[in-house]
Amino acid sequence: MIVVTVRVLVSPENRRELVQTVRSLLRNIQGKKGCLGSHLYSELGGEDALCLIEEWETQEDLNNYFRSDDFAIFFGAVNLLKKSAGIEFRLLSPMAGIEAVESAREKMVTASTSNPSKKRGN
């Protein structure tokens, strides 16, 4: 699975227009082959920041989306209305969710019991 994160800083006067543009595209994006999810979020404490998170089954599905009219509209709107933007592409590791937390905590407990002089969390 591929997760795409797009964080956009947008001025208050352009925010509504960008949100409306993305909202109008979401249903089409979510219906594309390989799209597992596409969600727009507003950052707490960062009133100028919006974050779009998408999940794609394969790189080929993501590439097809990048070549689509929907992405062209989204990318054009971001470039026109943004203060600044960053796009990150990340592949999820095979271990995810609560399993990752449990594994990390288990290693922390094991390390602290094998070295009693070492404080937990250091």
Written account of the structure:
- With 122 residues, the protein is α+β, with helices and mostly antiparallel strands.
- The chain has helices spanning 12-30, 59-66, 69-81, 98-114, and strands at 2-10, 35-42, 49-56, 82-91.
- It has a 4-stranded antiparallel sheet.
- A hairpin with a 6-residue loop joins strand 2 (35-42) and strand 3 (49-56).
- The chain starts with a strand and ends in an 8-residue tail after the last helix.
- The radius of gyration is 19 Å and the shape is flat.
- The mean pLDDT is 83.
- Helix content is 47%, strand content 29%.
- It has 2 domains: 2-91, Alpha-Beta Plaits; 95-122.
- It contains 4 helices and 4 strands; from the N terminus they run E-H-E-E-H-H-E-H.
Keywords, please?
4 helices; four-stranded antiparallel β-sheet; Alpha-Beta Plaits; 122 residues; alpha+beta
Q: How far is it from the N-terminal to the C-terminal residue, by CA?
A: 33 Å
CATH fold type of the largest domain: Alpha-Beta Plaits
Q: In what range is the share of β-strand residues? A: 25-35%
Query: From the alpha-carbon coordinates, what is the Rg to the nearest angstrom?
Result: 19 Å
CATH architecture term of the largest domain: 2-Layer Sandwich
Widest β-sheet, arrangement of strands: 2-3-1-4
Q: Would you identify the regions where 5 or more consecutive residues have pLDDT less than 50?
A: none
H/I helix tally: 4
Q: What is the overall pLDDT average?
A: 83
Helix content: 40-55%
Shape: flat
Count of discrete domains: 2
Give a quick account of the main beta sheet: strands, pairing sense, barrel closure.
Answer: 4 strands, antiparallel
Order of helices and strands: EHEEHHEH
CATH class of the largest domain: Alpha Beta
Structural class: alpha+beta
Tally of DSSP β-strands: 4
